[in-house]
Amino acid sequence: MRDLSIRGAGNLLGAQQHGFIDSVGFDLYSQMLKEAIEERRGSDGESVKFNVEMNLDLDAYIPDQYITDGRLKIEMYKRFRGIEALEDIQELQDEMIDRFGEYPAEVEYLFKVAETKVYATQNLVESILQSKQEISILLSEEASSTVDGQKLFMLGDQFGRMVSLGMEGKKVKLVVNVKGLAQKEWLNIVYQLVKGVATVKKEQVTN
After folding, report:
1. In this predicted structure, which of 66-80, 113-127, 193-207 has the lowest mean pLDDT?
2. Which of 128, 142, 139, 140 is closest to 176 using CA atoms?
3. What superfamily does domain 52-199 belong to in CATH?
């Protein structure tokens, strides 16, 4: 509140946010804002959950033709955002089909992205970022330290020249060349690589 009194509310409560608050309702907006803040700093001193940064140029959304009600659509997006396990995905898939019928390709992409993020979190993948015709998959330093180079090469080699391997400091980096590929094709490659990180760890040496 002291910071607000000095610098003002700015964009947080300004005109740019007003339309969004109107569309989802103040209570839901406040809850979403609270969750976002707690996710950034960790609430009540608890350890902050491993967060994967994802930015993909993909037609992954809920079309108006599938869910026409704006509030229901926001509710579903919130459910997607709250997915933490594979069981959550299956539950949401069943619910959406039951409530709205078979979902289109755009929603299928949402589920694939959510599943990819679950595996990325489990395997300590730090980020999955797209820049024009390339998608970079960056492992955390902790995950990189456990990687067996030969197994990693075999994982990438199954996709030929579409996937290259490298390092960014102490972090393993996989780069997918998506030029000429359909969205479904390159999304599946990213999914297989992220899921496959679990299979490239060094063997534990036991005495």
Report:
1. 193-207
2. 128
3. Transcription-repair-coupling factor, D7 domain (3.90.1150.50)
